[in-house]
Amino acid sequence: MKKIRSFISRKDIENLKSICGKNGWTDKKDVNEKYLTEERNFYKSYSPIILKPNSTQKISNILNYCYNKNIPIVPQGGNTGLVGGTVSGYVSNEIILNLEKMNKVRELSHTDSMLTVEAGVKLHQVQSIAKSIDKFFPLSLASEGTCQIGGNLATNAGGVHVIKYGNARDLALGLEVVLADGTIINGLKKLRKDNSGYNLNQLFIGSEGTLGIITAASLKLFPIPYEINTILLAIDSLEKAIEIMNELKKLYIEKLSALEFFSNFALEIVIKNIPDSLQPFEKYYPWYILIDIEGTKEKDKNYNLIENFLFKNLRNNIIKDGIVAKNLKEKENFWKIRESIPYAQKPEGSSIKHDISIPISKISQFIDESTKKIFKVIPNIRPCIFGHLGDGNIHFNLTKPINMQNLDFEKYQDRINKIIFDIVFKYNGSISAEHGIGLLKKDVIKNYKDKAEINLMKNIKKIFDKKNILNPGKLI
Ligand SMILES: Cc1cc2nc3c(=O)[nH]c(=O)nc-3n(C[C@H](O)[C@H](O)[C@H](O)COP(=O)(O)OP(=O)(O)OC[C@H]3O[C@@H](n4cnc5c(N)ncnc54)[C@H](O)[C@@H]3O)c2cc1C
Questions:
Q1: Which of 346, 434, 351 is CA-nearest to residue 392?
Q2: 279-295: per-residue pLDDT in tens?
Q3: Whole-model pTM over 0.90
Q4: CA contacts within 13 A on the Cβ side of 260
Q5: DSSP strand E in 286-381: where?
Q6: Ligand 1 site: residues with CB under 6 angstroms?
Q7: Domains of the chain by range and CATH?
Q8: Which of 203, 216, 384, 475 has the fewest CB atoms within 10 Å, i.e. is most exposed?
């Protein structure tokens, strides 16, 4: 990779300010804090200025300028990423380019079931815009109030509806992207079918800002589900949870839109640390499954099917207890429990977190083996396990023992990661199912991905960004 410049002159900064125009940048220290601090506080960025351009042409001009002057750029969306992908100053003196002012809706079509928005539109706004024409945009994450659609695509975000609708990459029809030298690629499409060559859009999706800056996206919209039945089940083993999942998949195939799970420790800390969260069952159980089943017009038929399913599995002792949410409040409480887990972990002190994926058939073995090995290293460690059971994506998070200091616990990070990642590898899983590689896993990815694939990725990076000015040092 070419060596990038480590010094940015005052003149460069003035020139970049003038490309961005009035209100298109900020260099005030206090304002910049939110752009310079990363979600988990693992990294603190340095960037002499935050660029906030409001048009694709301005982004193209910025990149063209930076390309000619060898100035590295870090694209940044809502800054909710969890792997240090948006930080600057670790590899060189990069400048942060935040997309928040790229916030226009370009097209909304009921007939084509599509929406074109600029990259800086927040995910929850994308969902609301779809709703305004009686459509549904299914990507849904706990960070949706802050993360941006450009960031979602750059990380190929998942979330709770992957089981039915897929990841961000399955929801994109086309992209507009600015390349490292400022070239604008207009790949915005409304088409469901296009076999006119390599699918370049898919290369940018999940590339974590290393191949180009996504400036706009055409997205697939879906019919709004008629109704959603939300069910919470208490289970005493993961094997039984998998059994339940298989039965639900058989019964509901297309209708199953979320299938999440969490451990008892996860529930306990939510009840303890998150205000207004309600304990759903009278007793605590080892595991819980949260299910959304999309309904049809035949409301009674749906309800009877669910009721029969519950009674049968209660009788067989597969389910220990189960509640079908009776109203919106109950539904919201169930989902609040699931989505608050990452926040409930914070007051418990340091955690070592993993967003891995495992073939569904191996989930139970993986959790059993990993937990046993981790307990041998730190006997009182508190596993906080939850995730997307339906697609095999597990948040295998480990919270420090009650009596251990944060710093003492954090010293175990590399050792614990190695234990977990080795087991993930053994089961042919992935060390990153959602959050990506960024800076956090950059040094270990080479141990767990095929060498030929890594080499190909490096060569692709060279083709798209031969001067290495786009998010240098991240991912590869
Ligand atoms: C509470 C919480 C829950 C979460 N839950 C989930 C979850 O369920 N599923 C999941 O997948 N993730 C989850 N995340 C992680 C995070 O929200 C996602 O990765 C999200 O997609 C990041 O979007 P963002 O706009 O914040 O991107 P950022 O954090 O700003 O950026 C992420 C990466 O994308 C690059 N990037 C950003 N915008 C662009 C662009 N326009 N063009 C090119 N590159 C760009 C950045 O350089 C960086 O490498 C969660 C995070 C939090 C805090």
A1: 434
A2: 999 999 999 999 999 98
A3: yes
A4: 28
A5: 287-294, 321-324, 351-352, 355-357
A6: 39, 74-82, 85-86, 99, 119, 141-143, 147-148, 150-152, 154-155, 157-159, 208-209, 213-214, 342, 434-435, 438, 471, 474
A7: 10-100 (3.30.43.10), 105-223 (3.30.465.10), 228-346 (3.30.70.2190), 349-436 (3.30.70.2740)
A8: 203
